[in-house]
Amino acid sequence: MSDTFNTDTKAYRAKKIIRSVLTYAFLFLIAVIVLIPFYWMILTSLKSQTLIEEIPPLLFIKPSQWDIGNYRSLFALVESGMREGEPLFPFFTYLRNTVVVSIITTIGTTITTILAAFAFSRLNFKGRDLVFAILLSTMMIPGEIFILTNFLTIVKLNLYSENQTYVQVLTALTVPFMTSVFYTFYLRQAFKQIPNELYYAAKVDGTTDFGYLLRVMIPVASPTIFTIIILNSMGAWSAYVWPEMVTMQDSFRLVSNGLRGAFTDTTGRTDFGQQMAATTLVTLPLLILFFTFRKQIMRGVSRSGIKG
Amino acid sequence: METKNNWKAWLYLAPMLLLMSVFTFYPLFNAFIISFYKGYRPLNGTIEGYTLLENYLVILNRPQFWVAMKNTFVITFVSVPISIIVSLLIAVALKSIPKFSKIFQTIFFLPYVTNSIAVGMTFAVIFSRDYGFVNVVLGWFGIDAIDWIGGTSNWWSQMAALLVFVIWESLAFKILVFTSGMQNIDKQYYDAAKIDSASKWTVFRRITVPLLSPIILYISITSMIGALKSYNSVIGLFGAKMGSPADSMMTVVAFVYRYREKFASKGYYSYAAAAAIILFLITLVFSLIQSAVSKKRIHY
Amino acid sequence: MEIRMVNLTKIFTSKNRKEVHAVDHVDLTIPAGKLIGLLGPSGCGKSTTLYLIAGLLKQNEGQIYFGDDEVSEMPPEKRGIGLVFQNYALYPHFTVRENILFPLQNLRVPKEEAKQRTYEMAKLVGLEEMLDRKPKELSGGQQQRVAIARALVKKPRVLLLDEPLSNLDARLRLQTREEIKRIQRETGITTVFVTHDQEEAMSISDEIVVMKDGVIQQKGHPQDVYDHPDNLFVAKFLGSPQINVFDASIENKKVVIDGMPVGDTELPDQKLIVGIRPEGFAVDKTKKSPLKFEIDLVETIGRDTTLVIEVTAEESSLLDKKTFKAIVEAENRIQPKDVVHFIVKPEKMHLFDLQGKRL
To answer: Which CATH number characterizes residue B166's domain?
Structure first.
């Protein structure tokens, strides 16, 4: 029903057109502003050393001028110092670590979330609303408070020491993050939308609660669960503080703290080309994930805002 | 509805509650307790005594703490209002264009799917004095290159760059939430407003914004809480040095973590805890103020 | 202010490229100062027509005139109309007063005058005590009156109502439709309302317009349209219980159903469709009439008696249903299983050709 009108006065019509043009111009400008960092990132990463040194910097380089030398140098082995013999930017190591952590925490979170959301949405038990309210309120507390003690806990459990093993660091990186009040709340909403009648019918058919959860609720709520899985996997990508605190060695790092770490370790002038190449590598998987699952991601994030 | 589910329900909740007890509830209380220890050595678990306010006073007397507070407050109270207003306008603009809105929405959401550190480093390049995009654009208007974040830069340009970065990052989520919120407003109100001869601006001011007000309040509070916790953005843009001179762009959270780094030494963990709790209290106070002030103007 | 629609057409294209002519080349003049009911089943185009008059939809073809002004190209805010939405569309965050005041503020009416007019409107609809309440504190009927007040406060040329009674419970419906009639009389404003309830339309309209599939089937005074339906659809749509419809034939100037004569006619012999209103059956106390049926069910409401006659498919030419109804005077004291002789009142018998057009 979006019809436009030609009206009796020319001024009105002109005003409408001007308004339309201005709106598009505004949105276009914002879009450009949003895209510039991505563009600059990729552009800089493709500039050879000489091109980078151009002042003022070039805004555009022809495909024939593209140079992947920066990317190559990331995988070149370090000649001396602490990390001798390793690639300058051990992207695949960081990637592997991030993926592993992501998978483990996602599996853990999905399980605990499904179980808890089931209890809150379907079961009736004493103290249910109180517990739920308490859990919700924890979302308001800044994470720094938890991190302080959690770090001590990790140390006490001997997971952070001079000879930290890979298993130990993985434990430290994953176990604290196997639950989420936020996703529990979100899934509970979705579970609540399943009509009671389905439950009663299943009970009459002799299904157990757990069977109902497994065979009815999970399939019906699978879009939501899928969204949770995706959003959760993306979380590991952005984690910086915690990984930085609990990883002993460079080879244990995740992409975020690996990124920053790798370039504060090198001495001398910052090599922007290399930096941007590394940044591009780190950003790429997320972008691919986004474009593949765009709808689910955007739907999941917007729902969280509304129902909040 | 059956009520004898009690023990079964707790069974389902057990994994979550167990993990949360260790990593959420216990830490919450522990943080308070630690802030009251004197001479705490976390590695041994030994303390030399208790004190009510000593740790807090130490923090409040540190000039660096106030540097961090200043930075955090500026980030919060400048970036949050600006990003809310801008994202509201964008959401309204999106609603009024018949074509391409999906494409724009996707583009606008990109900043959300990146990680702060990576993009921060990119912004560092963009704001670089010699190699950055910003100075190129300034050059088009005949303005001399500014050293935004380099060795000779001042606090103002560094904060300006940081604010630009923070606002850039924070638009995506807000735009998405506001857009969804607007879609949930019954179209009939807009038809009625047409019949009532309301101008586009009147519709925005007296219908869209009031009906969106619960969401705006929610965004306002959560954004403020998030901004008070700023840390990743500073690390992303400035690196571990956090500004030039070092630590001049530190935030309160960064301050807390700085003390945490000294966990092996006596008493420092208590300082970290005290600082974290001060931040928590500030966050709480501002959230309550916001809620109270908006009670009257929010329509449910 | 007379409303004139000329060749008005609105086409909607669905997702699979199918075109639907919601309003199909409609010519309609609505006389000034009258209350007109636009009536029809869902999907007939009545709401679309209303929205075209309002300007919320733009027509694909045709023109609309308010009096001498052509408004076809004008946006809604310039046409001077008041519209009461089906769900009232009251601004939930405004009080009743603010809701009614809103149009006047947008039209830049001076504050004092606006306050005065708001109060007058509230009085007109009987809500002057509720001015500071919010819509959610009001009942459905009250909300609707606020919607009416808001529509009227700007002294529009035309008042439009979209299914004004369908959200109200039965008791309120009767009350409210009288209200609408009263308000229309008092203000004298040209009013068009849309409904799918024929009883509602019939009871308060000065004129009704029956629509189907985007085309006007018939228009006129309610009683005229009821007594003289132009086609089978109109005959079936008006009247409760519904008119009884039979396959019939004309033989030797007699209309014959199932071998039984029901009336005389001048028309030539042919097969046709006959509609007989339930009240068109009168009991033949002399028991001489050849038209007789065994009664299956009797429903008495005191004022009259409804006789329900069941038929089986093979033995009868009754169309569409398994029973037909006759409404007779209660004194007849008829019981089930009685065989009753009927006479058909000629004015209640309507003849249609096999395509449904009146003969």
So the answer is: 1.10.3720.10
pTM of the model: 0.83
Asked if A20 and A98 sit in the same domain, the reply is no
Verify that A36 and A181 share a domain, yes or no.
Answer: no
Q: How confident is the model at residue A265 (pLDDT cuts 50, 70, 90)?
A: very low
- Helix (H/G/I), strand (E/B), else coil: C336: coil
Q: Which two tokens stand for residue C280?
A: 């068109």
Interchain CB distance below 8 Å, A34 and B3: no
How far apart, in whole angstroms, are the C-alpha atoms of residue A36 and residue A33?
5
Q: Give the list of residues 6+ apart from residue A172 with CB closer than 8 angstroms, or none.
A: A154, A159, A160, A246
- Indicate which of C23, C58, C79 best probes the interface with A, i.e. most A CBs within 10 Å of its own CB: C58
Same domain, A16 and A119: no
Domain that includes residue B150, residue range: 62-294
Q: Tokens representing C203?
A: 């009871």
Encode pLDDT of B36-64 as tens digits: 888 888 877 788 888 888 889 989 999 99
Whether B189 sits inside 8 A of C77 (CB atoms) is no
Look at residue A5 and tell me if it is in a domain.
no
Mean pLDDT over each residue of chain A, to the nearest integer: 82
Q: Is B3 on the interface with A (CB under 8 A)?
A: yes
- In this structure, the strands spanning C35-39 and C207-212 are parallel
Do A198 and A98 share a structural domain?
yes
Of B58, B25, B76, the residue nearest B270 (C-alpha):
B58
- Tell which wins on pLDDT, C143 or B265: C143
Find out if CATH 2.40.240.10 is the number for domain C3-237: no
Give C113-142 pLDDT, tens digit per residue.
999 999 999 998 889 898 999 999 998 889
Residue from C50, C2, C64, C3 nearest C22 by CA: C50
Record: contact B287-A140, CB cut-off 8 A = yes
Non-local CB neighbours of C233 within 8 Å, separated by 6+ positions: C210, C212, C217, C356
What total of structural domains would you count in chain A? Answer: 2
**Per-residue three-class SS string for B59-98:** HHHCHHHHHHHHHHHHHHHHHHHHHHHHHHHHHHHHHHCC
Contact A7 C58 (CB under 8 A): no
